[in-house]
Amino acid sequence: MDEEHSLNLSVPILRALLDLLPGTLHVKDRAHRYCIVNRNYLERWGARADEVIGRTSVEVFGDLFGVDADRRNDEVFASGKALPFYEVTYPDTRGGSIVLWATKVPIHDENGAVTHVLTFSLDVTPLKRMQQQLDESEQLRSAIVEHSLECFITADEDGRIVAFNSAAEQVFGYSRAEALGKPIGEVLHTTERRRATGRNAVRQRTRALLERSGERFETLGARADGKIIPIEISLVEIPLHDRRLFTACVRDLSEQQRAQAELERQRQELYQSERLSVLGTLAAGISHELRNPLSVVVSHAKLLEAELAADRPQPRVGAIVRAAERCAAIVSAFLDQSRSGPRRVEQFDLAQIIHSALDLTAHVLREQNVALNIDHVQTGLTVQGNPHQLSQVVLNLVLNAIAAMQEGASPRELAIANQLNESGDAVELTVGDTGPGIAPELRERIFDRFFTTKPAGAGTGLGLAICRDIVSAHGGSISADQSPQGGALFRVRLPVSDRKQQAETGATMNAS
Is the torsion defined by CA of 25, 27, 33, 34 positive or negative? Predict the structure, then answer.
């Protein structure tokens, strides 16, 4: 009675346990008829127990499972051994497909004969979808990295290279097979250790690189042929669950630096061309300026020669000296403008370069009948910088003002002034004219390279751009406005210099 009660009790317990299984379970006999199915199996395939028990899968589901399921059952009946987990895909009754991990286990009778086969399976369709998405994402990432124009180099925690894309092969000259396993410090250098050699130096470079994770910086790289190249690195750490990786996105800066050097060379050529253009404009006037004082020198020298006997040469000598000094000043100013290359930085009075520029343009001012107003040019306002470059700024502004007043302006007046600004930390230089002025919408654009308001062929469009670059290099600013007379007014602001401050020895400022 107890055994019967236990048996009667064990059946519902067993049924409950089968229904609690996370997967589907069914048992078939040698005729491939269902003997036991759990709830998940029925729900999975949309059937009832009374429709399934005692019938074959073909009778219940048609060709849904094909012949594979029964074939595998036959293998278990024949071998008496379980089938390890395998993957199988079936059409889903909902119109899609389902991926299962399944295993089959033989059930023996008391004589050891296999009478039934138990099949247990887990639905791994969501997992397979995620795996597929992960694989596709990895394929996409790999394709992007592999075909990127940037170099991607990945190293492990020990600094050993574990990934090396095609761009890295081209830039560094290593094949992927050669690069994998190398210390990353053998390929990528830190600037401060680039001269060190040997295994210890490579370890130091590797450690120094990995310590800069999260940074973007420029350094040096070593090609397989030993050539050192400039590179930019963006290094990121990738923490994984059991280790860390470091990926460096590397750009070869060689071509960029060559292009920058070529651009700078062309820029200097343009500046020199503009300077020569200005000098060409002044050349005719300078010849006139020199002719008169030289004729004075010659005539007074002849008179001095004739009067020496009279023992009164002093007035004649003074006239010769003044005329010669005038010639020397003009020639000196002209030569200053013609020089190129680095110039020394020094402290100087801004009034000096104003008068130097006016010495060069005196003939042009007279020829164009331009009145000059320098009543507000003050001496003693000292700035620090390159006087030759700032003289070029003043010269450009003066010549532009003269050119602007050629088209019928009356009266023609050029007004130049300098003063401290209200806060006392900058010297302001203003150059104003009585020309037509500059339209408000053009007052910013006139400082752009190659922009000019002059007729075609009458200007290069570089003069004011050069002025802006020079003033900016001196820490100042330049702007255009309207003068009180209605013409153009250019205002240059330069930081004031402490008279007691000594110019730094050897400091230079390149023409910008």
Answer: negative
Q: In this predicted model, what pLDDT tens digit does every residue of 89-105 receive, in sequence order? A: 888 767 778 899 999 99
Beta strands in 168-265 (DSSP E): 188-189, 216-222, 228-239, 244-252
Task: Verify that 414 and 451 share a domain, yes or no.
Answer: yes
Instruction: Say how many C-beta atoms besides its own lie within 10 A of residue 164's C-beta.
Output: 24
Domain that holds residue 53: 2-128
Residue of 243 and 429 predicted with greater confidence: 429
Residue position matching structure tokens 């020397």:
328
Asked whether residue 241 falls in the same domain as residue 360, the answer is no
Number of domains in the chain: 3
Q: Is the peptide bond before 411 cis (omega within 30 degrees of 0)?
A: yes
pLDDT of residue 30: 94
Same domain for 460 and 410: yes
Which residue's structure tokens are 């006999």?
29
CATH number, domain of 222, equals 3.30.450.20
327 φ/ψ angles, rounded to the nearest 5 degrees: -60, -45
C-alpha neighbours within 13 Å on the C-beta side of residue 317:
6
Do both 246 and 273 map to the same domain? no
The tokens for 330 are 């003009």
- Among 252, 274, 299, give the residue marking a domain's end: 252
Comparison of pLDDT for 332 and 226, the residue scoring more: 226
53 confidence band (pLDDT: 50, 70, 90):
very high
Q: In the numeric block, which tokens belong to residue 457?
A: 């062929």
What is the pLDDT at residue 502?
A: 31
Overall average pLDDT of the 161-179 stretch? 91
Looking up residue 423, the CATH number of its domain turns out to be: 3.30.565.10
**Tens digits of residue pLDDT in 492-511:** 999 988 644 333 323 334 44
What's the alpha-carbon Rg for the chain, to the nearest Å? 46
d(CA 294, CA 297): 5
